[in-house]
Amino acid sequence: MREQVVEEGVEERVFLSEASLCYTAILEAEREGEEEEEEEEEERKKKKKKKKKKKKKKKKKKKKQKKKQKKKKKEENKGEEEQEEQEEQEGEIMRRKNKNKKKKKKKEEKKKKEEEKEKKEKKEEKENKGGE
């Protein structure tokens, strides 16, 4: 009977040690699975972060390009505005010059008429004096 109990005890210990080994293997497999999942999760996060960074960089580049284009357009508009203003000023100058020329010409014509009138009057006076 004692032998039977000893055998059963040995079998039980063997069984317990095998169960313990199995349990340990299961736990280890679970840990490995969890570690793999964590690594995969980290990889996903890294990829996501990299993608986000790339997108952000692209957006920044686009924004910079848009800003540059806007500045260029502004410069072009500024140049056009300056040119238009200059042409307008030149036109105004020409109008003033023409106006001044007309005034001068009118003045000269008036002066000539006055001189002719005076000559005519003097001539008439002479004729009147000569005739008396």
From TrEMBL:
Bias (Acidic residues) ranges: 31-42, 78-91
Region (Disordered): 29-132
Biased composition (Basic and acidic residues): 111-132
Superkingdom: Eukaryota
Compositional bias of kind Basic residues: 45-73, 96-110
Name of the protein this chain belongs to: Uncharacterized protein
